[in-house]
Each structure stands twice: as structure tokens, then as C-alpha cells.
Amino acid sequence: MSNTRLRFAPAPTGSLHLGSARTALFNWLAARRLGGELILRIEDTNAELSKPELIDNIYRSLDWLQIEFDGEPVRQSERTDLYNDAVEQWLSDDLAYVDDGAVRFRVPTEGVTSWHDLVRGNVSFENEHIEDFVVRRADGTATFFTANAVDDFDLGITHVVRGEDLINVTPKVLMLRRALGASDGPEFAHLPLIVNEQRKKLSKRRDDVALESYRERGVLAPAMINYLALLGWGPPDDIEVRPIEEIISLFELTDVNPSSAMFDLKKLEAINAEYIRAMSPEDFSHALAPWLKQESWGATVGVEELTKVAPLIQERTKALSEGPGQLDFFFLTAPEFDEAAWTKVMSAD
Question: Could you list the residue range(s) of the whole structural domain that residue 286 is in?
């Protein structure tokens, strides 16, 4: 095991979405490729928005993706003393000051804050354009900048892999790291945004972004992992569908494309269909069984019986949720008339 250490740091303010899942995956791929460790850090300092059920959703979703972490999860809500100690030290060193109850960090008025980004190359911000920023709110809670810098420093994080929407945070975090006594920063890799087919950033209000919804549709975890890996990265030999072990062996953060990555549902379905076709009839039947049990007629269908007919639909199935609609006529004593399907067939050219 090398000294390489990465972290995935979701905030439990909603269900784990596609962008966060891709970030988790890229962190995991990089950690395994470099022979390092991956830490799960829950950024739950916002007590109002951080709900236990949302934390459970994060654990459940990451477990489904088979992303493994090293050590116990770190909860920021349990590390407030560390953040307060850092802020008090900055105040003592005159690197911060009290402003209407809050504490602000003094940003240098000259020079630049820069780093070499593994995805974007050299990035720099002129300090004169960065205002003194809050490191502790008037209510005594640490801000994102403080918790982020203190945790990464304390946990020995060597690589920070996250979305490009956080790139403006990085100069502030680097300033705080130096104020903590760090001689240098970790390696940064800011991943491209994921956009929809209209080239707009994926939105929780407009797009279906919750990872769990794709699991509920019957997307296989290996297929989702394979597809997410292609959102910003591509193998050098252009072979897109391959075992996760091969993806790990080929993955390099420096190969990530900084341009926006488009989420293409049809491509995900095509990859999922390929994984389904590669399953044995027995494995396909076992995977299909939970969807059949949701139907009134499916509860009595045994796996042995299902295995006999499942291969008849396996070649054309794009998601496991399609199974009941394709198999019901085998098991229903009085098949139900689907008017929508009839209309679709009869109106076809």
C-alpha cells in the first residue's frame, strides 16, 4: 500500500446523484490504480439539511456500486473541535479576524494562488480578486472551506478529485492549508460537468439524476460502473465495455477530458443490454426474479420455471424492469389487454 490517499466527501442533502456517483467512482478508480486508500467523509455540518435517511441513501447507493472504502467513515459533525482549534490558531496568528460575530480569513492583497490540475493543467487566481472569506459563522459552525482544508490536512489526503463546480473553492482551501502549516497542497483533479442532451448541466429539478432510480429500473451495477467511467474518461484502445479490473488498470486522471460529458440514456441502456446478454440464463433469471415478484402473478413463479423461459427475452432486454411485461403471457391464465401497446403496434408503419 502506497502513501496515496483520496477521499469521497458527499453532503447528505439529497439522494446520491449521477454526478456524485461519477466522482465517487473516479476517486475509487484512482485509489486502486495508484495502490492507495480511499476514505469516505460525510460532510454533515449542516444539521438542518443533513438527514439520517439521506446518509443511509449514500451508504446504500455506494454499496450497490460496489465501491469499497478503507477504514471507518469520517463524519464532519464529529470533528467540530478540530475546526475550532484551527480557527482559534488563525486568530492568534492574526491570519483571521472577527467580523460581526463571524470569523473571516485575511486574503493576501497581492500575488496569485495557483496549482497544477491533473485534468485542467495550470490554474491560477489573482488574490486581489478574492475577498476575505468566512471560516466560522456567527453561530460557531465551521464553513465548507474550513472543514474541507482541516480534514484534508488532518487525514493526509494526497489527491482531491471532485467536480469542476468546486474549482473556485480551491484557492481558498490552499490558503487555509498553508495557514495550517502545510508546505504544499494535494494533487487536484477537477472533473468535467455532466450535461444532458441539451448540453445543460444535469439538474435535480429537470433531469432524472438520482442513482437509485436507475437501480430501480433494472440497470445492473457493473453496467452503471462501466458507463459512469466513460463520462469524461475513455480507454486508450477505445474498447468501452470491459471488466472493472481492466478499467482500473487503464485509468489515469491525466487522461480525463476537461470538456463536459453528456449523459446519454440510450448509451447506458445499450451497455446494460450488453451486460444482460453476457449473463448465464441462471444468473439472468435470479436477477429478474425480484421484478417478477412485484407482480401479482410473479410471486408463484419459481427460479427453475423462470430459467426455462427467461432466455427467450434475454437478447432484447435493456433493463430488468422490462421483464414482467415481456414474460406475463407465459404465466397469466388470462393475459391482460394492454391498450397502449396495441395502439403503438397498430399505428406503426
Answer: 279-349
